[in-house]
Design brief:
Layout lengths: L1 H8 L6 H13 L3 H13 L6 H14 L2 H13 L3 H10 L5 H13 L3 H13 L6 H14 L2 H13 L7 H13 L3 H9 L7 H14 L2 H14 L4 H13 L3 H14 L7 E6 L2 E6 L4 H4 L1 H16 L15 H9 L2 H12 L6 E5 L5 H13 L4 E4 L4 E5 L2 E3 L6 H13 L7
Parallel strand pairs: 3-4
Antiparallel strand pairs: 1-2, 1-3, 4-5, 5-6
Helix pairs in contact: 2-3, 2-4, 3-4, 5-6, 5-7, 6-7, 7-8, 7-9, 8-9, 9-10, 9-11, 10-11, 11-12, 11-13, 12-13, 13-14, 14-15, 15-16, 18-20, 18-21
Family: Belongs to the PPR family. PCMP-H subfamily.
GO molecular function, one term: zinc ion binding
InterPro entries: DYW_dom, E_motif, PPR_At4g14850-like_plant, PPR_rpt, TPR-like_helical_dom_sf
């Protein structure tokens, strides 16, 4: 290895092959710290890592027992929606603590893989690793996404009886969400009533989401009232109340809510979506002037809308709150920020790559349907990360997971060093 390093240092030009050869060589010769050090130098030289690079670095981390680095990398992959890679890193780690297990369980739950998350939890317990409050929060979230009501009840009880852990506000929120999604609204209200502390906005939003799903307008109005009471300056709460009233065609009260918003000068948080193409992050926020900058995207979106309708797509207009004609409702939905980002992705990325979008708010029902049809008609794999979770689309279906691609490996490789994850002493 000394001769190889000397030859490398004397090279006037280096590419990914030469960097990878040295990193892999160090790993094969059990010089793991040197391998990680070379990876750091590679990044500082602005050389993008490849799949070969990451395999070498991960192997070095695993052999070093670099617990914090491996845990952070598992977390990074999971939060980027690449669960396969997160599981690979986790499997390579010879030493695991409760934080490492929590990261994988949370990542699986976040990506809609509830049953897999519970399977990992079972393995954790079998390994005699004592779960903590974060573990049970991840487990309850997994139950929520899979609709596992009975299992959720048992876990909520066992964290108190078997492990002596006191549920926090987040655990109660998960239970309200779990029961509410299953239509058990009365039981969800009982959980709220029996809480040892005053419910916070997270609790009421969980109940409100359940009311939306099951059409309980009266209880939804109670939940929104509590939200406004707790957060009088949060414009989103007034928007939700306005939407609820509009669904019931209570237009006079809708007008009153809007006047109240003007008086308080509260505003709705605008939807914002991000997509990375050719190492450039593009941001879409629907506002005046965006049409001029992205005219080709707007034109593409109009064409896509027409083509999807021929394939059976129907615009979900019932969530539009305005007292206007159906055609105007459709127009208000067509230019949601995530649709604009998707149109750009279809325009400017290769057909074999995954389109990855991040949004600051929840993806609405119409956009969810739109993405399904795009994945089928345009034969594209799509991953969307909204405020709550990941959504993976392929061939008109919502999938449990999508595998990572080379581009994702390179992006995550940059992020890894950018936050100092693989810096060792």
């Amino acid at each position: 290895m000394p001769d190889a390093r000397l030859l490398f240092d004397e090279m006037p030009n280096r590419n990914s092959v030469s960097w990878n050869a040295l990193i892999t060589g160090y790993t094969h010769n059990r010089k793991f710290r040197e391998a990680i050090s070379m990876f750091r130098m590679m990044q500082l030289a602005n050389m993008e890592p490849t799949e070969v690079t990451m395999v070498g670095v991960l192997s070095a981390c695993a052999h070093l027992g670099a617990l914090s680095q491996g845990t952070a990398l598992t977390d990074m992959y999971a939060k980027c929606g690449v669960v396969d890679e997160a599981e690979k890193v986790f499997g390579l780690m010879r030493v695991k603590n409760v934080y490492t297990w929590n990261v994988l369980i949370s990542g699986l739950a976040m990506n809609g893989q509830g049953e897999a998350a519970l399977e990992i939890f079972s393995k954790m317990v079998m390994k005699n690793v004592k779960p903590d409050g974060v573990t049970f929060l991840a487990v309850l979230c997994a139950c929520c996404h899979q609709g596992l009501v009975e299992e959720g009840r048992k876990f909520f009880q066992s964290m108190q009886k078997e492990y002596g852990l006191r549920p926090g506000i987040e655990h109660y929120g998960c239970m309200v969400d779990l029961l509410g999604r299953a239509g058990l609204l009365d039981e969800a209200q009982e959980v709220i009533k029996n809480m040892p502390r005053k419910p916070d906005p997270v609790i009421w939003r969980a109940l409100l989401a359940a009311c939306r799903i099951h059409g309980d307008s009266n209880l939804a109005e109670v939940a929104i009232g509590k939200l406004i009471e707790l957060e009088p300056d949060n414009g989103e709460n007034y928007v939700m109340l306005s939407n609820l009233l509009a669904r019931n065609q209570r237009w006079t009260e809708v007008g009153e809510v809007r006047e109240e918003m003007k008086r308080k000068k509260t505003k709705k948080v605008p939807g914002c979506s991000l997509i990375e193409i050719d190492n450039v992050v593009h941001e879409f926020v629907v506002s005046d002037g965006l049409e001029l900058k992205w005219q080709e995207v707007y034109n593409m979106l109009v064409d896509m809308n027409k083509e999807l309708k021929l394939a059976g797509y129907v615009v979900e207009t019932e969530l539009v709150s305005f007292d206007v004609e159906e055609e105007e409702k459709e127009q208000s939905l067509i230019y949601h920020s995530e649709k604009l980002a998707l149109a750009l992705g279809v325009l400017r990325t290769s057909s074999d790559s995954i389109i990855r979008i991040v949004k600051n708010l929840r993806v609405c029902k119409d956009c969810h349907s739109f993405f399904k049809f795009v994945s089928k008609v345009y034969k594209r794999d799509i991953t969307v990360r909204d405020r709550n979770r990941f959504h993976h689309f392929r061939n008109g279906r919502l999938l449990v997971r999508l595998s990572g691609d080379g581009k994702c490996q390179r992006i995550i490789g940059k992020l890894v060093l950018g936050v100092g994850i693989l810096i060792t002493g």
